[in-house]
Specification:
- This protein is α+β, with helices and mostly antiparallel strands.
- It has one domain (about 5-65, about 70-85): Alpha-Beta Plaits (2-Layer Sandwich), CATH 3.30.70.
- Helices cover about 25% and strands about 35% of the residues.
- The protein is built from 3 helices and 6 strands, in the order αβαβαββββ.
- The radius of gyration is 15 Å and the shape is globular.
- The two termini are about 30 Å apart.
């Protein structure tokens, strides 16, 4: 994966993600399922100009959903929890 904009898709702005950001200085992103930890680390450092200590990833399976008699499934996706160095921070709500 060459392009850093294809690796980092969007931030995951949930209650748990915001609590991690405030308490542990960690940020949660939705990333490309084919991306590895090194690529995610380089992309976050370039995009946001921060220092990254560690990256943890997990694959999230899509939920099964039903509308009437039709059933379907949401897409599977990959989540990355990025630990930032002391003094580094990313604030997504500041820009809204």
């Amino acid at each position: 994966m060459n392009n850093m904009y294809n690796i980092i898709k969007k931030p995951c702005l949930t209650e748990k993600g915001m609590a991690l950001q405030e308490v542990e200085n960690q940020v949660v992103f939705k990333v490309d399922p084919r991306a590895n930890k090194l690529e995610i680390k380089k992309a976050v450092e370039k995009l946001f100009n921060v220092k990254v200590n560690a990256v943890r990833t997990c694959s999230v399976h899509g939920k099964k959903k039903r509308m009437g008699k039709h059933t379907g499934q949401r897409s599977d996706w990959k989540k990355a929890i990025v630990s930032l160095a002391d003094g580094s921070s990313i604030d997504f709500l500041e820009e809204l």
